[in-house]
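stage 2 :: seqdesign
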């Protein structure tokens, strides 16, 4: 994924090998390999209307991996200095996003199933849900 130098350490796109055979395709994600962190939580999003947006937040500590196992969606990313969008449309594309990156998921196809990995259990206190608060955190830390 092309982008500003600030994103190079915060976002990484990993191509997953197709380990399948005549019986079908197989993609593998292992903690500390393709997903470079321990996996503490796995969830998936599906049935999202095309006009819906999801995420709309940053995380203080949690890091994520996103892979569209079916269909496609767009992921908008913002590190407070630069923004970029990427389309996920292959079950062999893993997008790894570090903490403190604003994320918006959008433009879901009707068949989209987005698998999400995280290195932390869900914690509402880990979420920054206001973009203005996110920018303040980046500039000043917690007040």
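stage 2 :: out
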């Amino acid at each position: 994924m092309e982008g500003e130098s600030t994103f190079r350490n915060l976002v990484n796109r990993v191509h997953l090998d197709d380990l399948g055979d005549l019986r079908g395709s197989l993609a593998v994600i292992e903690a500390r390999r393709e997903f470079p962190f321990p996996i503490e939580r796995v969830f998936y999003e599906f049935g999202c209307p095309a006009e819906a947006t999801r995420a709309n937040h940053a995380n203080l500590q949690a890091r994520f991996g996103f892979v569209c196992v079916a269909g496609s969606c767009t992921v908008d990313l913002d590190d407070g200095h630069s923004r970029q969008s990427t389309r996920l449309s292959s079950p062999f594309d893993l997008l790894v996003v570090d903490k403190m990156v604003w994320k918006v998921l959008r433009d879901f196809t009707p068949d989209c199933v987005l698998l999400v990995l995280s290195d932390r259990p869900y914690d509402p206190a880990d979420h920054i849900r206001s973009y203005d608060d996110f920018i303040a955190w980046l500039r000043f830390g917690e007040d």
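stage 3 :: structure notes
- The chain is about 10% helix and 40% strand.
- The chain has one domain: 5-140.
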